Amino acid sequence: GQNIDQPTEMTATEGAIVQINCTYQTSGFNGLFWYQQHAGEAPTFLSYNVLDGLEEKGRFSSFLSRSKGYSYLLLKELQMKDSASYLCAVMDSNYQLIWGAGTKLIIKP
Amino acid sequence: NAGVTQTPKFRILKIGQSMTLQCTQDMNHNYMYWYRQDPGMGLKLIYYSVGAGITDKGEVPNGYNVSRSTTEDFPLRLELAAPSQTSVYFCASSISTEPGGDTIYFGEGSWLTVV
Question: Digits of tens for pLDDT over chain B (115 positions)?
């Protein structure tokens, strides 16, 4: 079966750095997405990785290792507004998105 | 910019009732999707469409029906509501599913409770 694993919840301090991990086992691979979802709202796109390595976009970076079936989302200089759930999703060989359950990130002052 | 619009935002249904969740997008996207998201769970694909007149089942299609008569509209029909269908429903669209081609744009969600 297809599976996406990510921690259920993480806590970090305002101004700090946090890394959210995602491991996957899917039928084929056509890219990995990270989405941010604030409570009661729709997911919004953060990043897309299809090649190994690090993609940096402002305070957010995403890393991919296809051989290890592993990705992480790195958030720097955390702000209170970063409190949200972070969803990892993998596009499989049929171009269908398989979604993880999400990691709820709690930011403390 | 409208993007993906879905209605209603909140609805309470009695067991056995029927209803339609409406979804429309104004971005001329070919691909449209319906997902459900249960508390603490990831998004589950119910149905999707690759263009007008074409629909296909996703991971959890039982109890639902869809139609795609136009590029813009993709309504989701619940025929006999059951408590297991209590969830948050998201409609989404994209230009294509090709990797890197586009991201998926989501509607604001519809909170459905079946009692």
Answer: 679 999 999 999 999 999 999 999 999 999 999 999 998 888 999 999 989 999 999 999 999 999 999 999 999 999 899 999 999 999 999 886 655 545 789 999 999 999 9
Which residues of chain A neighbour B99 with C-beta distances below 8 Å? 30-31, 50, 91, 95
Beta-carbon contacts of A56 under 8 Å, excluding residues fewer than 6 positions away, are none
For chain A, say whether B41 makes contact (Cβ under 8 Å).
yes
Chain B neighbors of A48, CB-CB under 8 A: 100, 103
CB within 8 A of A52, min separation 6: which ones?
Answer: A64, A65, A66, A67
Say which residue the tokens 């702000």 belong to. Answer: A79
Preceding peptide of B75 cis, ω within 30°:
no
Q: Which two tokens stand for residue A42?
A: 């729709």
Residue where the block lists tokens 């691979």: A29
Q: Which residues contact A41 (CB under 8 A, 6 or more apart)?
A: B108, B109
Number of other CB atoms surrounding residue A96 within 10 Å:
20
For A49-82, b/e burial (b = at least 16 CB within 10 A) is: beeeeeeeeeebbbbbeeeebebbbebeebeeeb
